[in-house]
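Build the 3D complex.
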Amino acid sequence: MIEYLLILYNKMKSLKNIQYLFLALSILTISCSTDDDSSENLSGENNLTMEFDNSVNGDDLILNTTAYTNSNGERITINRFNYIVSNFVLIDSEGNEFTYPKDESYFVISEEAGLNEVQLTNIPAGEYVALRFGVGVDQEKYLQGAEGQGDFLQTAESTNMLWSWLTGYKFLNFEGSFTTAANIEAQDFKIHMGSHGSSLDNYKEFTVDLPTKALVSSNLSPIVHFKVDANQILDGQNKILLSEKSVVMIDEVKSPQIATNAAAMFSVDHIHNGENHDH
Amino acid sequence: MNILPILALQNIKNIEMKKFIYIQLIFAFSLSTFASEENTNSLYFDSNPFYKYTYEDCDFCGCGSSGGGMGYGTVGNENFIGLRYIYQSYKSRDGIFNNSPWVDENFNTLQLWGKIPVTKKLSLTAIVPYHFHNREFINNTTQRIDGLGDISILAFYSVITPVPDGLFENQQSKYKHSLELGGGIKIPTGDYNRSNNAGSVNPSFQVGTGSYDYVAALNYSVGYKNWGLGFMTNYTFKTENKDEYHFGDQFTYGVNLSKVYNTVKIDKIIPFIGLAGEVFNENESYGLPVADTQGSVIFTRIGTELSLGKLSTGVNFMLPLTQNLNSGNVEANYRLGLHLNYTL
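Done.
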């Protein structure tokens, strides 16, 4: 580059022509607009980490502290926010799907226990554009019986995500207190949503698009940063009034509505592409 | 009169202190105006009042080869070598939520800079920065990075050179103007650390971009009597670094109004006010756009220069007028620059 400038200077000296300066500038411009397209061939396999960042209505969720008023006119303080995410499927830019091994595809996210991260291992290289997964445990898994659950049964029990084996898993355990304009005395609420054995199936799957591609290769291990909005549970597509019913467990009307709402809690805020060894 | 101790400036966090500095600068400005009134028509009268911006390298995003958008200008003394200190105060959001905490970021840069003549029309400009940045997280841990930054070398060609005034009246002109075009390169001599780009906080917390970046610059100034109006603009084409991170291109522009006063004790006092703007393109990581990395900011600027014999010194303060950096996740608080130059 310095040589360019010296050559340029000599030319200018002899010709006194500033056109050379423009020439030099265009050389600089051309030399820096090299290949931007980094769609190099990705190969090998690596981890894909998902971070579930819990929030309420755009604010960070802080248990027992954050109080907010939802559009139902109820002021809510959240004391517990646990849920099960499962059956992950990664979809690449060409529409190919990679299904994560089913037996390893069940995770509890718990704000109180500090469980916010899920690591999927041995993901084949690719440019992933979307993730499909579910909230809760599907009937197929449940019908494998207690032995078929592996370690997950223990995890669910220790994180308050199990009623009893016969009743089944709580897919969502959302608790706290609330006040209304009519009743300013704080009252507890409990939203425990699940499938209740095999009689009522509330397991729901959905697809979440990624804002940028998540790149996986032998040296690229992305982090998918989810923004999870707890406000959706009561104040989503279906409006669930706590003043109508403050403890919702086995409810043929409200539980499926809550399941639908919960499926809409998830969006991806951003992706960290890179090696991400030290995350 | 207006050179504040550097140490005191390092960690100015509260607004009171900022106000103090601003008042100090206004004071210096008015004092210099006052001090010169009686001497403006003496034989020290200098009719070359250009306040020149040879190269204004701002650089907040991509960490600054020189830092601060403080202007690369000295008055009259075309060629110099000097030392400049730049302090930039930012805050950036640590997290993705509306109530996520803000992190205070202090960007300090000490740089060796100079403009060396090659011929009458051509000069070389070089900036060698040393950065020492820090930021304090909400859990009271402090992250520090320091080290040599990215060195810039630019060549400037004078397209229009103002004719010096002669002794006789017909050899003097009221209006003068100058135009310089330049181009150069920023070399990745500073360390780039990809992990500093991984979080939700300011991706520009680096001492180097890790990339070879190319600069095109244009400076135009016009002078009338002892007033000067300077326009400068430059565009930095940034390239992808070896870690496959690509800082967005950067466009910088500024305008300054200055006036030269000559006194008996101090050769020249040149207060100035102006605006300085910066526009940043989106960064890319592995060829994919990184959300919330573009933005722009416009600063108001006030400062003054003093020259005494071969030495000149200046102070320069910038407050944002309007800004939208990183989708509001980064906010520039203010910038301060001090320099001491020796005329070659």
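Chain A touches chain B at residues 1-2, 5, 8-9, 12-13, 18, 21-22, 24-25, 28-29, 31-34, 36-39, 53, 55, 58-60, 211-213, 215, 220, 223, 225, 227, 269-270, 272-276, 278-279 (CB under 8 Å).
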